[in-house]
Amino acid sequence: MSAILTYALHYEGEFNNNSLGAVSEAAKLAKEIGGEAGAVVVGEGDDLTDELCQSLGKYGASKVYRAKAPEGLAQPVVDAMAKVIQDEGYKYALFGGGLLGFEVGAGLTARLNAGVTMEVTAVKAKDGKLIAERPILQDSAIVDVDYVSEPGIIIGRLNAFDVQESGDGSAEVVDVDVQLEDHSTKARMVERGESGEEEVNIEEAEILVAGGRGLGKAEGFELCEQLAQALGGAVAATRAVVDAGWYPYAAQIGQTGKTVAPKLYLAAGISGAIQHKVGMQSSENIVAINKDQNAPIFEFSDLGIVGDLNKILPKLTEAVKAKKG
Q1: What is the DSSP annotation of 270-320?
Q2: 3-class DSSP string for 70-120
Q3: Which secondary-structure segment (H or E) carries 154?
Q4: How many helices (H) and strands (E) would you count in the chain?
Q5: What's the chain's average pLDDT?
Q6: Predicted TM-score of the model (pTM)
């Protein structure tokens, strides 16, 4: 009966959106193949309350397996998930991507001799089984991946799965006694790094103003920051400007950066190379500003503006501020 198991990362009493998206997707798919969606949470002390664990029921989880182990480290999670999969017979494990999701998924694959697919952008049910869709050849084609043995490990791109409330919040909480492997206790969390107070998580921002080499210099990002502040959004960057030291790595979008899907993505001075496109093409609305009318980004933008961004961005900022009164 058991079908799909996920891992839900939490911090300071909240689950992150990437995890909630995976739980939501697992719940939807589990219904389609005739099973249940379960979630594993790990933690120490009093941070894993019944209320917190049960809240995953709102996103479709039928059971939440609570394990006492260090949170935020991959190997203890692998130990916990491997035990639940083997004891309860889950056929699939689904992750929402991100560094920890990739590490846990890879660890489970090795531990259980499972099949794995990474960088998944969508999952569909067919004949009682799950099929993962994965881009290949720099996103120029999509392939379907089936699994010939159990469990199948599915690791999505970051934020590939939408957060959707589909349950009544009444998930059953099951305490799991996990015997951690010796190597799983070698590492410990010394300090959790946090971004500056003024920085915004670009993966969760609904509005992004992204800058590229067309800004001309690092100081050009001040124009992006001013517009982002007026819009109530965040600033992002391309790999080229990050490598040049113009903007922090945490803001990089693309094949070697982060994947985002905001409601509005405004690209200033970005040519639109395939490496950048794969990180932002799921945005609901893409607006591009570039002085080169033949820039590739115009091919997949909803609105393209050909002109000098140094003149256009300030005027946009003024217009937004005036609109807000």
Answers
A1: ----HHHHHHHTT-SEEEEEES-TT-GGGGG-SEEEES-HHHHHHHHHHHH
A2: CCCCHHHHHHHHHHHHHHHCCCEEEECCHHHHHHHHHHHHHHHCCEEEEEE
A3: strand 152-156
A4: 8, 17
A5: 89
A6: 0.69
Q: Are 130 and 124 in contact (CB under 8 A)?
A: yes
Is residue 145 helix, strand or coil? strand
- Do residues 189 and 47 make contact, with C-beta atoms less than 8 angstroms apart? no
Each residue's pLDDT tens digit, 175-212: 999 988 888 888 877 776 654 434 567 888 999 999 99
Strand partners, 136: 141
Tokens of 4: 């799909």
- Cβ 60 vs Cβ 29: under 8 Å: no
Q: Are 107 and 21 in contact (CB under 8 A)?
A: no
Q: How far apart are CA 51 and CA 291, in angstroms?
A: 53
> What CA–CA distance (Å, rounded) separates 235 from 16?
20
User: Tokens at residue 8, please?
Assistant: 């839900």
Measured between alpha carbons, how far is 203 from 270 in angstroms, rounded to an integer? 19
C-alpha R_g of the chain:
21
Tokens read off for 15: 């689950």
Q: What are phi and psi of 234, to 5 degrees?
A: -130, 170
User: Regarding beta strands 285-290 and 264-268, do their DSSP bridges make them parallel or antiparallel, or are they unpaired?
Assistant: parallel
